[in-house]
Batch of 2 targets.
Target 1
Amino acid sequence: MAPGEIVTCRVDLAMMHDSGGPRRVKPMLEKLGAKVWDPEKIVVITDHYLPADDEESRNIIRIAREWVKEAGVQKFYDGVGICHVVLPEKGHLRPGLFAVGGDSHSPTGGAFGAYMFGIGATEMLGVLVTGEIWLTVPHTILVEWSGKLGRGVVAKDLILFLCTRLGMNGGKYQAVQYAGDAVAALSMQERMTLCNMAAELGAQTGLVAPDATTRAYLDAAGATGVEVERWQGDAGAPVLEHHRLDAAALAPQVSAPHSPANAAPAQEFARTAIDVAYIGACTGAKLDDLRMAASVLKGRKTAPNVSLLLAPASLKDQETAREEGTLGILLDAGAKLLPNACGVCAGYGGFRFGENAVVISSTARNSRGRMGAASSQVYLGSPYTVAASAVAGRICDPREFLA
Amino acid sequence: MSGRAWVFGDNLQTDMLAPGQYMKFGIEEMARHCLELVEPRFATDVRPGDVVVGGRNFGAGSSREQAPQALRHLGVAAVIAPSFAGLFYRNSLNLGLPALVCADAQKIRAGDSVRADPETGRIENLTTGEAIACEPIPPHLICMVRDGGLLPHLEKRLARERSARQAGPE
Ligand code: SF4
């Protein structure tokens, strides 16, 4: 097999959520009179239309609940968090897996050394019926971060910088492999953030070679007996591009409206006053993200005119945060707790940012009108940066608060 | 069939083609809001057979196939761009909307009358008389696009398999 070759692959796992999943594939399956190829290999997670606060949303969720029964899908997680976070949390990801997800941020699975990428609903139908999908064997774009990240600088900063350096099509729909000392030092959830936003790089997937950190996570998630060592890149395999970057030199990044590729050091936005600070999404509200925010917010309050919104990415992460005191710190600082769902990040529901709202957000995307009114301005930053900005009432470099 | 060209810039997002707040509705409602933030006249003025011309990385962002589906629903005959976001490209062909990679796409001006042949990769600008080459639809997908997308393609394939089974082994 060589890069550029077109191959048809058997799929090990297919993940769907409520929006692109059952409500879309069920009528098409019925039209074909077809059944799913293997219910054991399908995972369905509801997250986009929760809480279901109108007729359409309730209907979409109801279809998901009914369809999993009909199709015999056992791996159904309903209202316990965002798909990309729940999937590994429940032990469904492991190195070497060939997986598809009905969502563009499916490269998150690459953090575990799985080849996972996003597809649309009709293509998902094809997978559900045949168990196969075509693929152009990808080239590797190697992104090597050497050195050690400074305090207050995290995976989100790496990826916002990268989106800006390489551009929104810098990934060329190939496989981006993240490597180097700074990447090896990242926790699993931080690696997930990095791989998640391979979508914003326009890559098909983002990958991190599995190691002891991966194994520890998998063990805890109940995915045992995995041969982590086996799933490493071939030494000397050809790479299309090799980017060498210095993690130690990186400052916290903020991406201005309306693109993740608009990043600059956070301090350059220091005059931007904000109305809302949003800690949410698969990208920016996992347990590690909540801990970052808490380390800034401990003993502090959000600025009087700022509302701090918090939508933990999964119920499990929320409850762990509660037990260890992290959640309490966030709530004491004035955070308003929202459901463990996509929420404002998707912008699908009733709750969207208002006219001219200026927002700093730990999510992945800030295209115009995505999270609210067309006039709203969404800046992207790390959970550290979002939390620090919530306290300052303006965008700021979180290192001011971490000394 | 020829149609008028609607021209857009680089990195056009799926959030623009299929805005999130309408995702819960059917394609008809979604299509009414297609590109409203970029070109408010688009959804009302686009006519069947028109083509959409994009810049680099057309269709960036989400996996939502309502993005190409809305264009198709409005009768757009093809999307022509120097490069596509991978997910949009796959979705587009899966829905039977030809996505044509064309290095010189931006030579086409808004309102030009354009004829595109997805199979040969020939684009004619009838307004300027110019012929523009694009990459034809890849051979492994052409059959599917001819069938009108993956769903009708699968329908045919399953029907073939069923009748082969009924006929029994030779
Ligand atoms: S949280 Fe946002 S980025 Fe993540 S799956 Fe939901 S809508 Fe997509």
Target 2
Amino acid sequence: MLALVILTVATALVFNFTNGFHDTANAMATTIATQAMSPRAAVALAAVLNLIGAFLSVAVAATIASGIVDQAKITVPVIFAGLVGAIIWNVITWYKGIPSSSSHALVGGVLGSVLVAEGSSGVLWGGLGSKVVAPALVAPFVCGAAAIVATRVALRLTRSRRADSTATGFRLSQVLSSSLVALAHGTNDAQKTMGVIVLTLVAGDRLAPGAGVPNWVKVSCAVAVALGTFSGGWRVIRTLGTQVTTVEPAQGFSAETASATTILASTFFGFSLSTTQVVSGGVVGTGVARTGEVVHWSVVRRMVGAWVLTVPAAGLVGAVAEETVSAFASATLGVVIVAVVTAVILAVLFALARRTNVTADNVLDGIAPAAVIDEPVVPILAAR
Amino acid sequence: MTTLAISTYLPAGDLAKIIAAVLIVAVIAPSAVSIAVVGLDRRAEGSPQVGAGLVALGVGVLAALVALGLYALVNR
């Protein structure tokens, strides 16, 4: 059982790492696109804030898929299989450069593995509606509407101002709002993985039910999400920062402010939203708000399609993983084999990604020239 | 019908408060930055004291919003 627990904890940390690099774009895509900070400085700042955010809240780490599956029926192999589903979907969407929700991928993965292990009686379908479907239907529109309002206010109030003052003011302010998004991401998403690991330890009889989060779990989750963020999900950053719409400093500020406010207000009232969907709604909203601006709806449609597919697709992978693990007489052997197969799939995806490598150096290639304005406004952080 | 279905899962009262908070910040935050931008302009036009005052006002409002955000994050 110990080997099983260790493998599952390691897999949870890998998920947290993918969560970090997949979601770097949420906080920093528009900051990079408007050149408020250099790409490397932006992801470094996001990584530090994710690290701090992981320790910030005193709230108990949210347990895995709480309210969506029957927690009493969760076993260590079920958690492992769910994580495999989430990781593979995260890496596939990263490879395709699509901003999709890591949290929903985790929910989907666990849902699929629980369905195979326990049948539909293990799933709380009402929870799926309240924690996944309803927020996903509302959050992007709330943030998008706020981004439209913020963008119009910003553009109206500064239309007779000097262009350099306006750009400087909004770029500096955008660093602030992006930082809040990064901090909130660290708090929410690192704690989700802490919850996964705690549940694994409890299910594996390594921790008493109701015990707090051990310090080593807090530190390892914080470091994993920070390292993931620092590695920079450049493919997703390129999509969100440059391919949805052209983001000028006032727009970048508006999108990130609307996102930060939506996430923080929802957090305060007890709703857990997908940071990715909120920020994507903000970016689309800010594009819609600007007269004459072009929103590339084909990219938006691709994103929304991925959002719809996330839970079922991660669930399918989670189900296959659980079915495979349970086919072996020894759960540990099954988990090892699935872990090896997963590693091979990830290696293939990363190898494919290298053919069209997106890095800090070329992430802004193809951006509309109007959005590329002189030097970053935070020079002290801009050194590469 | 969709609204009815959503309100089954998200309490309408809380949702209204979130939307109100988000829209209020969506007006205040860019206004604060715009005040700071006016301040930057004034400084460039040779009124350093007025400019610095406007920049300080804008930054102060933004700082207050950030403090509110941190409060929401820590006290959820």
